[in-house]
Amino acid sequence: MRSQGRAQIDELIAAARVPVFLLDEHQVVRPGETGTIDVITRRAADLGLIVELVPLHGQFRLGGSEAYEHWVLDLLGMDGGEPWVWEGDGRVDLRLAESLEEMEAFLAGRQNAGETARMSAGFCWPWSDPRPDGSLVPDVQIGNWSRPWNVKSERSVGGAPGSAFWATDPAGFGQVGCVYTAQGFEYEWSGVIIGPDLVARDGRLVTRRGESKDPELKKRTAVGDDEADRLIRNTYKVLLTRGMRGTMIYATDPATREYLNGLVRQRQGLETRYEPVAPGVWERADPRTA
Fold this sequence. Notes:
With 290 residues, the chain is of the alpha/beta class. The protein has helices at 8-14, 37-46, 66-75, 100-112, 179-182, 225-239, 254-261, and strands spanning 93-96, 117-121, 140-142, 145-147, 176-177, 187-194, 198-201, 204-207, 243-251, 274-278, 281-284. The chain folds into two domains: 1-56, no CATH class; 62-284, no CATH class.
């Protein structure tokens, strides 16, 4: 039973003779979340406890590619790294999309081949409740392309699975996952939409908190600019590391697309293409017109 008014860090330390914390500080995406090495170390010192830090270097996500994770961290300006050109490592297939239609067609091909594929995005569009008829509102609108966010609740809506099943139920394809839904899940192929809250300017990626639709980030008095910057970067770190086999990126900002084009050496080769024939239904494209 939780004691009233007691800090969670104190509860966790008191819960075992040897408490063990598994941490990824770049997974913090909500304001007010704690659990950094510094916080735990300082509190343990206050209690007269010894802390032993054990780095875990093994990588079981992302096809076991430590190189790709480092590329993402350096791309986002985390841990003091500088962006560098990705030329592939044989473990992760990284691609760029010139349009969202291209991204969705590629992912549909993977989904139809029996693999799991999902699209996710930064929180840069409103997130409406379902309509009275149970249909989802296509809030994520970019040009002529639009799709709904994943379902907010645990219950399915109009054939779309509840949020806990978005990443695993095939019916989750066709909705855009937000970071709060995608976090903690992996799927074989990941499409990531980088919204206007993260853009390339003067040779680096900068955040624009004013473009975020996350209600917590819009509270300027509760969340400082430095924290908002960190949370936005952490959000994209999470989204860019969901794909076990490959990731395709699309940036809504033209300058950002150009910037990424200079940092990714893409694989060349013909792909089986699919085209939409009805909402949520894709068929193999005629190779004479694809």
